[in-house]
Design goal:
The chain has 4 helices and 8 strands. It is an alpha+beta fold. It folds into 2 domains: 65 residues, Alpha-Beta Plaits (2-Layer Sandwich), CATH 3.30.70.20; 70 residues, 2-Layer Sandwich (Alpha-Beta Plaits).
């Protein structure tokens, strides 16, 4: 089930700007809608909506959070296996793999290469097979 928009929507367009899959449409100052077939349930629309007009997939009303306070991934290099799954799961492509750490440690590790693009969805943390990614407040 996808996120939905309630009648509280004032058509401000904030949600359309942050939706990574363009699932939200509507005219400015008019009620917007979400295409459930496109929605990936990342939650960006609910975190950015100033009107509290978003319901999550479970039907709960989403609460606006300042963009600067959205959670960001933190990577634990001690348990990371450099598998790239976190990077591949990011819907906004804000993660990258670093170069080799040193001669003794030839592995690259994931990092946020574009923090402004991060929507705090947590897909990287959910998909990590070794729990090397945690989401921390912005």
């Amino acid at each position: 089930m996808s996120y939905t928009i309630t009648e509280k929507c004032n058509g401000c367009d904030a949600c359309t700007k942050f939706c990574p899959v363009d699932a939200i449409s509507g005219e400015r100052k008019q009620l917007h809608t979400i295409d459930g077939a496109l929605c990936i349930e990342c939650g960006a629309c609910g975190r950015i909506c100033p009107e509290g007009a978003m319901k999550d997939a479970g039907g709960g009303i989403c609460v606006m959070i300042k963009h600067s306070q959205w959670p960001k991934p933190v990577f634990d290099k001690k348990i990371c296996t450099s598998c790239n799954i976190c990077i591949e799961s990011c819907p906004v492509n804000c993660l990258a793999l670093s170069g080799a750490q040193s001669r003794k440690n030839p592995h690259g590790y994931p990092y946020i290469h574009n923090a402004k693009a991060c929507i705090g969805c947590g897909f990287c943390a959910r998909e990590c097979p070794v729990d090397a990614v945690a989401m921390a407040g912005g």
